[in-house]
Each structure stands twice: as C-alpha cells, then as structure tokens.
Amino acid sequence: MKTKTRNDRYVELLDTTLRDGEQTPGVAFTPEEKLSIARLLISHLHLDRLEIGSARVSEGEQEAIRNILAWADHRGCRERMEILGFIDNGKSSQWIHNAGGQVINLLAKGSERHCRVQLKKDPAKHMADVCAEIEKADKLGLTVNVYLEDWSNGMELSFPYVYDFMKVLIEQPVARIMLPDTLGILSPEKVTRYLDWLYAAFPNVRLDFHGHNDYGLVTANSMAAVRAGVSGIHTTINGLGERTGNQPLAQLIVSIHDMTERTTRIAEKEIQHASEMVQALSGKRFSWNMPVVGTDVFTQTCGVHADGDKKGNLYVNRLLPERFGRNRNYALGKLSGKASIDQNLQEAGIEELPSEQREKVLQEIVRLGDRKKQVTPADLPFIIASVLRTPTSGRIQILDYQIESKMNALPKATVKLRIDGSEYCSSASGDGGYDAFVKVLRKQLLKHGIRLPKLADYEVRIPPGGKTDALVETTIVWEMAAGKRLTTTGLDSDQTAAAIVATEKMLNQLIK
User: Fold this and answer.
1) Which site from 193, 305, 366, 434 is most exposed, i.e. has the minimal number of CB atoms within 10 Å?
2) Are the C-beta atoms of residues 101 and 113 closer than 8 Å to each other?
C-alpha cells in the first residue's frame, strides 16, 4: 500500500457533489451541468480530487463521466477524477477503464453486520472477493481506493472485523482507505479514539474521512479527523447528500484554515460562486444562515452591533466577508439604531441627514419592522421621501405597463417609461410575464447607454393560509457594478407586480 506521513500540512479534499451529492432527493445533474461543476471545482476552487460519478449507472452517467475525463485529460488532471465502483467480478473496473478513468473508489463493507446481513457472506469470503477485485483493477492500470462502508458501526460493534480487513488491505496495491460515517452516528470524541486505534496499528496508512450530518456534528467530526492526522476529507458543495447531507465544503475550509495548523489549497474567494452555481443547478437552496455562504451571515441586525462596529469593529471575527468576495451589511428593521441608519445611508451614497430627520426615518423603519415588513437599503430613498414629504426623482420611472398571458402563446409586455424626462412605450415577448417586462426595459435602457444589471437571485414568499388574495413579497438580488449586490423587495397581491415594484427600486439605485 502507498503510504503518506500522518499530519501532512495539507489536508487533501475530495469533493463528491457529483456522486454522493446526487443522492440528495430530487437532485440529478445533466452531463453538461456535471462538466460545468467539475470545471469550476478544479479550475477555480482548486479542489484536490473529485468523485465524478458511479460505474454502470446509466447512459447519461457514462456520457457525463466521459466528458469530464476528456476535459481533465486536456487539462492534465485525469488522475484527480475518481469513480465509484463495486465488487462485481471486474465489471466496474472494465467500465471505468473503457470510459478513460484512472481511479476506482471500490465500495466494500466496513462492518461485519453489513457483510453478513446485506451480502450474506462470511467476512473471509468478502475480503477475498475485494482482493480479487483490486487485482483486476490493478491489472487494468487503475489506481484503487477502498471505501469501508459503515466503518463507524464497524468500529463500534465489530472492531476485530475492521482490524482484519485493514491488515488485508495494506498488503494490496491500494492508495487510500476511505472511512465513511455512513449513518452519521459519530461524535468528535469517537472519531479521535477510532483513528488513534487505527494509526496505532497501522502508522503509515493513508486514510480519508467521509462524514454525514445526521446529528449536526459533521464539521466537528471532520475537524477531529483533521487533528487526528487523516490525509483527506470528503465534502460536497452546500452539504448536498442523502438524508441530512454530507460535509459542507465551505465551513470545513474556514475551520481548517482558522482553527488548526494544517491548511488546504482551496481558493476561498471562489467558495460563494461554487455554492451559488450548485444551488442553481441542483434546485436545492442553501439556508439563509448557512456558515460562510448564507445570504444573511454577514448581516448585523442589532443597532448595538452596528454601533460597536462603527466605533472599533467590536462585533467582527476572523470570518471577514472580504475573504469570500462579499460585504458586511446592516439590516434595517425594528432592532435598528442610529448607527444602522448611518451605515446604510453611507452605503447608498446619501448625505447624512440632520438628527431630527434621521430620527423620523428610524421611527418609520421600526414601525415597518413591527409590521413584519422587510426593509432593504434600496427602500431608504422611498422611506426618506415619505417621511420628509419630498418626491423621489430619478432618471428612470415606470409609468405604466400591461402584461398579457395566453395559453399556447408567449407572454407579452407593453411598458411605458420616462427616461431623462422623455416618454417611451414599447413591447416585447418573453418566457414569462416578468421576462417580457425585463426585455422591454433592457432594450430601451440600452438605447440610452444604460446597462440593466444581471439578476442574481429571485425569491417569492407567499404567506401560508391558502388565501389567493394574500400579499406576495418578491425579493430580487442584482449584480451591480464592481461586484456589489443590491437586494430589492416588492409587495403586491400580484406576483408579477411585486417583482416590478422591486425592479423599479433597483432602477432608482442604478443611476442616482
């Protein structure tokens, strides 16, 4: 077996979004999507290894794997692409070889219970079958890694079985032994204890830890494995995976970088991009408070916190948003204070208000917050105008619009705009009513040298209860200049109208 020094400075990261991540209910990537994700994870995020799929699954899986391997071969990193294979008398190995793969991750049983109950085999027979499979793969020139499925229960309930299996494997041409906590049952203390046992018996073995998050302990368990000296950790983007998911990449990276003496090769500034891309392609949104990547994790809500940051960054830790290409925000709502208002006025480029007027604006924001209204920085000009009874003005106003939808016909929008004092009316068709509306805007604004920002996210919130006349809140995130983002919201009983309200707020910020 190939060996590696325990506690090597670099922690090797294998991302299995394209294999284990597809076990998330409702998630299936097309071959084109898999290639796009693989290119991003290798070329921009700098992951060490990718598990790109499983052998003998489907024609679509074969196409995706061939495409990724062809790209990796052109880039000179084919040996970093790994494929799950099975104990099937060499069929998986041959399939991977024919597809152009170089690495097989062989799935074996890491607990005696799985071996006897699921396979109905004597442990000695299963170990012999695994060795025969390794020999076939090795003869085809494949690098072999071995998964010990249900390893955590194996260590808990049948340590002699795991020990005997490890003794067999280290005598084989195996590059890595991969240790899954298949059911997410471990605690950090057990991870440390079990790895210490294995390293005491096999000091030069090359181990990967593969965690699941059933008890919400996966990052703590992975960190225990890192401190115990494992060579590699397995992750998925946004924690995709079966049940509660796998180890999320983002929070593991920052924990290793900030809390251990070891490090990784990951480019932190690319984490957000990868998370948002996988979110879009998988259809699975990550939570608003997910560490590092969540929409609200760099937002302070309490006015006391905004005041402390203004006076000396008193509420800032090492997870600075700039590390990830993001910005700190100060939310507006019923807990806002004067410092929150000042921070947002400065960000919006609005000159500081006299104290009396600022107090009136603050009272209005608190009032809206009490009524559960979401207030964003883009709402400030409207709130100020309302409180001070001064009309809002801008180069662009939406004067009127009409949106038509018909069965078996593209929706059409007719929009009347005022730009720099002149009125324009034009129409366009689109894939939906709002898409048609945006196409009219884009066409007219380009004639005036104004480029509409890219829509980065679009979310509709409908209060529960089933009322068809309920107010709909539409929140849109826009990619503005210099990489900054602007969030605007609209409220209306009509979903498209709410989106248009949010868009009009953006237009007022586009050119102040």
Assistant:
1) 193
2) no
- Contact between 299 and 293 under an 8 Å Cβ cutoff? The reply is no
- What residues does 474 pair with on adjacent strands? 460, 490
Which domains can be identified in the chain, with CATH numbers? 12-282 (3.20.20.70), 299-388 (no CATH), 393-452 (3.30.160.740), 454-512 (3.30.160.340)
Q: Give, rounded to a whole angstrom, the gap between the first and last alpha carbons of the chain.
A: 65
Q: Give, for all 512 residues of the chain, the pLDDT tens digit.
A: 666 556 689 999 999 999 999 999 999 999 999 999 999 999 999 999 999 999 999 888 999 999 999 999 999 999 999 999 999 999 999 999 999 999 999 999 999 999 999 999 999 999 999 999 999 999 999 999 999 999 999 999 999 999 999 999 999 999 999 999 999 999 999 999 999 999 999 999 999 999 999 999 999 999 999 999 999 999 999 999 999 999 999 999 999 999 999 999 999 999 999 999 999 999 999 998 999 999 888 887 666 666 676 677 777 789 988 999 988 877 676 666 666 777 777 766 666 667 777 777 777 777 776 766 667 766 766 677 666 655 555 678 889 999 999 888 999 999 999 888 899 999 999 999 999 999 999 999 899 888 889 998 898 877 665 565 566 888 898 988 877 888 888 877 788 888 998 898 888 777 65
Residues with active-site annotation: 19, 149
3-class secondary structure, 427: strand
Nearest to 398 by CA among 490, 303, 306, 316: 490
Structure tokens given for 25: 């209910």
Taking the C-alpha atoms of residue 162 and residue 153, their distance in angstroms, rounded to an integer, is 10
Query: How far from the centroid of its chain's Cα atoms is residue 142's Cα?
Result: 31
